[in-house]
Amino acid sequence: xxxxxxxxxxxxxxxxxxxxxxxxxxxxxxxxxxxxxxxxxxxxxxxxxxxxxxxxxxxxxxxxxxxxxxxxxxxxxxxxxxxxxxxxxxxxxxxxxxxxxxxxxxxxxxxxxxxxxxxxxxxxxxxxxxxxxxxxxxxxxxxxxxxxxxxxxxxxxxxxxxxxxxxxxxxxxxxxxxxxxxxxxxxxxxxxxxxxxxxxxxxxxxxxxxxxxxxxxxxxxxxxxxxxxxxxxxxxxxxxxxxxxxxxxxxxxxxxxxxxxxxxxxxxxxxxxxxxxxxxxxxxxxxxxxxxxxxxxxxxxxxxxxxxxxxxxxxxxxxxxxxxxxxxxxxxxxxxxxxxxxxxxxxxxxxxxxxxxxxxxxxxxxxxxxxxxxxxxxxxxxxxxxxxxxxxxxxxxxxxxxxxxxxxxxxxxxxxxxxxxxxxxxxxxxxxxxxxxxxxxxxxxxxxxxxxxxxxxxxxxxxxxxxxxxxxxxxxxxxxxxxxxxxxxxxxxxxxxxxxxxxxxxxxxxxxxxxxxxxxxxxxxxxxxxxxxxxxxxxxxxxxxxxxxxxxxxxxxxxxxxxxx
Length: 565
Prior knowledge:
Largest sheet: 7 strands, parallel
Strand order of the largest sheet: 3-2-1-4-5-6-7
Helix content: 25-40%
Number of strands: 14
Structural class: alpha/beta
Radius of gyration: 26 Å
Shape: globular
């Protein structure tokens, strides 16, 4: 059976033997064939065969044979409609910019697939974007919360690590588990059927496997990825296709600011700033060497090492790099070349649109002054001390209202610690509070509480909880706040909708949350934990847009002072 996917593979084989041949010419022909009948596809196969056998010797004759109809209006004649693979790992803030880009590329006539954590499948697909999982959902190593927790436990891998024995011991203790995580990131565990039809999970599978839901064919003709997905440039090398990197934080060597994983802000020593990128490149390469070289060998590529500058391939090869942050915060450094662009924050990945808030949230927002938003997003460690300090400050400021969102963190609170001027947002419990077995219905669904499954409905929740010998702190807190109309159990509220209705925002400084707060022109306090967060926090304070503190130095007094400023 001849399909356009088979023809594309034939063309790829030709291109690998003869790099001088022009793949875009074939791509445009395949784009037409995808909309044609079986007979026309077979006709294209015969014409392609003539080219493969060198019966056709010039591009002009090949063009006459292959391109028989005009280019669609929304596609440039010089740029064929392509299957573009977008690969990203991390939190929601790392996925959303790729969604915005995928939408724009789709408008230009391309087919885009986002490959990332299975946790974000519904989030991506509901925006009309193709999705592919990079690992099985049950693999704990691969969950974004796990990756975030490792980053939080090692907030700075810079030279100070060599002077802090406790950090060195902590890193050594975590190394086997971290190595396992990096290995799963690059070479995920495959199901038994993978041996018959090739890999099912992972970035390599995402290049060519059909859509897991629709079965639609896909063959990557360009790759756009964030740096921590690691496999991008190696897959592009194998396939002979373009590669572009997109990220939310500085990752290219510069004297202007140090690497985000080496906590040094703007104005620090230029020499050490630039050196920090080479340092982190080599630290990261040490962690992924085994996994990447295993992947390369499996794909028929030679292993690479330091003799080929493996740690800095992206910089050495001048791979096009797109930074999605604002030059109002960090202008383009003068030592970045023309292959690097700062294009600004991306806001259209998952817009709120006609979002309607659940009744409890809408009513609470409407019955008082605009609140202060407090939430730490994807931070996955235990934030009980910080949230306790926030609630103590809220109790000391009865004239203000606070909207507190739990996010991904671990948390243990006494219901008595939540003052009356606080509205609480949290993800629903995993199991129904009544039957304890089935999944709950998100409170975004009209009439749902976020505590019960569809079969149990709202039920007699008070009686069911009262009958239990031991309540968890969550059950106690959720039941109390829900009875007072101060609770929303939901996967989330769109920041672009919510931040337009608050007086100020306090968050961890993740790029997505930061951009939403600045877009809404709200005073911003950044409580930074790791990575790029201290950089953005210091820049927010330097530009006069808010306040900045490290999470390790958080105190109720500092928080209260920032809110009242």
